[in-house]
Amino acid sequence: MYDGGKIIPGLIIFVLFITFPIWYNRGNAGTVPQPELPKKYKQCVLPDADMRAEHMQLLNRWRDQVLRDGDWGFDVKIGDMKYQKSLMNTCMQCHTSKKKFCDRCHTYASVKPYCWDCHVAPVE
Amino acid sequence: MDTKRRNFLKIAGATTLAGLGGPAVVERLVSGTSPAQARAAHGEHPASPGAKTHSAASGHEEKNAPTGRRLGMVVDLRKLRKQPELMEKIVHACHAEHNVPHFPNKKDEIKWIWRTEFDKAFAEHSDYYKDRMTKAGDVLVFCNHCDEPPCVKACPTRATFKTKDGIVAMDYHRCIGCRFCMAACPYGSRSFNWRDPRAGLDMNHINRHFPTRMRGVVEKCNFCAERVGLGKPPKCVEVCGSTRAMIFGDLNDPDSEIRKVLRDNFTIQRKPSAGTHPSVFYIV
Fold this sequence. Notes:
The complex is a heterodimer of chains A (124) and B (284). In chain A, strand 1 and strand 2 form a beta hairpin. Chain A has six helices and two strands. Chain A has a two-stranded antiparallel sheet. With 124 residues, chain A is mainly alpha-helical. Chain A has helices at residues 4-18, 20-24, 48-68, 87-94, 98-108, 115-118, and strands at residues 76-78, 81-83. Chain A is elongated, with a radius of gyration of 23 Å. Chain B is an alpha+beta fold and 284 residues long. Chain B has a single domain (69-283), classed as Alpha-Beta Plaits, CATH 3.30.70. Chain B has helices at 5-31, 35-40, 55-58, 77-82, 84-97, 118-121, 132-136, 150-154, 180-184, 225-228, 235-240, 257-264, and strands at 71-76, 113-116, 139-142, 160-162, 168-170, 191-192, 218-219, 246-250, 280-283. In chain B, a hairpin with a 5-residue loop joins strand 4 (160-162) and strand 5 (168-170). In chain B, 36% of the residues are buried.
């Protein structure tokens, strides 16, 4: 190989440079987002893990049930309490801060849900 | 093979007849009715409650007993004309309740319920030699929540649809802003959000229990589905209160108050010839 002495170290430097983010952050997942949970209430509509994984499907299901099937009533049960299927009138009544709850994970995961184009976030 | 032309034509003719007529015969045998009977019975098809219930609107209420609810409204213009301030109050209350933005520019205007002149509301009615009240007083108009809503047929995404209560509702999540529904609606009941509606709202004084809309969707009166769903009357009816200038109820229930009012008063509808069967009736 002509000029092997230059090409091979060059390639090694190039690969190291390209993979810089991988080896520099090795073994470090970054700061995990810490959404602030409501202090007064301990139980959500579904168990925590399910809420974390499926809250978007749940919200879509609620939307269809309320708008399409006219299911406006208070039929979501948490313990003895009954709630309406509503983002603004149920979820955000306990999770009173969009910035400290929704946004922390959404920003971390770089997802931009369009909920708040129409729905009104709580006053903070 | 030695097929004669005569035989060939016979076979070809028989095959064509069987091909054209066969399915029709089979269909009739399977369904057990003739096409004419099937069409006559369509009006009371139990599979589509509300979708084909022309009870009060088309006048054969006894024949086609409709199933399901069909919410409707009677607007008593005799009472409203005497109190224009009540009309103003109704418009204001509805728009405040539903976070309807206010834009002074006519093109950007969003309206769910509004006042208009008699000739514009009832374009089909003769208006030669109008009486004093008709000339001076406005008419309160809003979505007619038609039994045969042309907007629902026009919507390519089913963002607008009829609920089981007969409300012509909108799912703003699905609206793509094509405005076909606006072209289809004969009453101009729909408004398009050309601008961000939040720019036309005082965001510190909005109703925080009801969403706003976003730029690029069509909006209109929802018959207060969110209130009716909880057993409350629509906001406009609530504002009328004891004046009973607007009466709300189930048109399919012969014992309801609205049906009693319809029995006792002569009412008219907007553009009946459009065949939309509005659920809103006016006492003039």
